[in-house]
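Hey, quick one: can you model this chain's 3D structure?
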Amino acid sequence: MATVVIRDEPKQEEFTLRLHKTPGLPQEIDMGGEGPLLERLEAGDDVTVTLWRDHAVVVARDGIAQETADTPEDEADFILAVALALIPIGAFLLHTGASACAGARVWADTGLPAVLVLRLKWALGSTLCVLPALALAGLAELGPVGEALLWCAMVPLVRHYLVRKSVRSRGRHARPLAAGSTLL
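Sure thing. Here's the predicted structure for all 184 residues.
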């Protein structure tokens, strides 16, 4: 059994299908719009709900079907974006922590190496690369694989930019690198 709620007012649209006595199904389904089915339904009508990954994606009755707004389509893109944003920061912290443990005595004598600033900038720049990768993958409908590939293509560009900028900005007041260390 279903109850239909349609509120089509400016700035307050609601197209909801409320289900009753349906164990295993959501209580409410956002239909996204009136569509071909919702406008024909009345309270008490029996409907068929198609579930995909615990989301009600299609509601049907008497051969008329309507897609709902409850879809996990872009869920993977956002989960991947969060993961890609956390990877460079985690890698930087892990590497810096291990370097601090291994070189604590040297760092105590000479101070923190200048390369840490560059690595931090690279980690933050790599984290920011998630935003254009997510946007471009969404526009081109590339999905999570395309998003990951775009991000992987941008990260070396950030490193290249930082290395070039670092080499150019070595004035007489720049802190020299420690012996044997590289830029990144």
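One thing worth noting: The beta strands are 2-9, 12-19, 28-30, 48-52, 55-61, 64-67.
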